[in-house]
Amino acid sequence: MRKIPLFLVFVTLLAGCALKPTPEQVEVMVLVTQPPPPTYTPYPTYTPYPTYTPPAKPASKPMVPGASPTPAQPAAPSPPAQPGPIVVNPACSQFDAPGDDAHNKVQEYVCFTNQGDQAVDMSGWVMHDEYGWTFTFPAFTLAPGASVRVHTGCGQNTDTDLYWCIEGPAVWTNKGDTVYLLDAAGNLVAKYSY
């Protein structure tokens, strides 16, 4: 297509001359009178990472009209959820590893003790915290009176030490967390808050 100077098109239109425009001039006039097509500038899409939402706290008791609110008391460490042979043993647990926890995860561990008089098969049992970190026990039996430590870091499993081998940050929050232990059927066996 041959380009015609824009001023020529307007001069021709304004002069009102009797010249018949050529097909090229008509095409230019049509193009000049139409608005330009809208431009589309794509924006990058943002995909947020999934976030963990802790379980909802139980609803507080409704206030009685005229009663004054009482301040909430800090939570004390909770005893095991059910009296049973397997308990979280805080005396042999270490939730805050020496130094930087993220670089010393082998020294961050939870200790479980069998207080019963029979061995307990813990294969397929699950330990988790308030924030969703989950450890599933491998084929493992805890002898009566024995303890096992579940380390956040990597190592070789033994009768007394199991290793989670978590990539990334340490699991147990130094400011407080809760250990939940569930059997293979999903029943709560032990719970300990620190």
Q: Going by CATH, what is the homologous superfamily of the largest domain?
A: Lamin Tail domain
Number of helices in the DSSP assignment: 2
How far is the N terminus from the C terminus? 81 Å
Biggest sheet record = 4 strands, mixed
Q: What structural class do helix, strand and pairing data support?
A: alpha+beta
Query: What's the CATH first level of the largest domain?
Result: Mainly Beta
Task: Write out the strand line-up for the largest beta sheet, numbering strands in chain order.
Answer: 1-2-7-8
The H-and-E topology, N to C, reads as HHEEEEEEEEEE
Description:
The protein has 194 residues and is α+β, with helices and mostly antiparallel strands. The chain has 2 domains: 1-38, no CATH class; 86-193, Lamin Tail domain (Immunoglobulin-like, Sandwich). It has helices at 6-15, 23-33; strands spanning 86-88, 109-114, 120-121, 126-128, 134-136, 141-142, 147-151, 161-163, 178-182, 188-193. It has a 4-stranded mixed β-sheet with strand order 1-2-7-8, with no helix packed on it. A 4-stranded antiparallel β-sheet has the order 5-4-9-10, with no helix packed on it. The longest helix is centred in the first third of the chain and has 11 residues, at 23-33. The relative contact order is 0.16. The model is unreliable at 44-53 and 57-82 (pLDDT under 50).
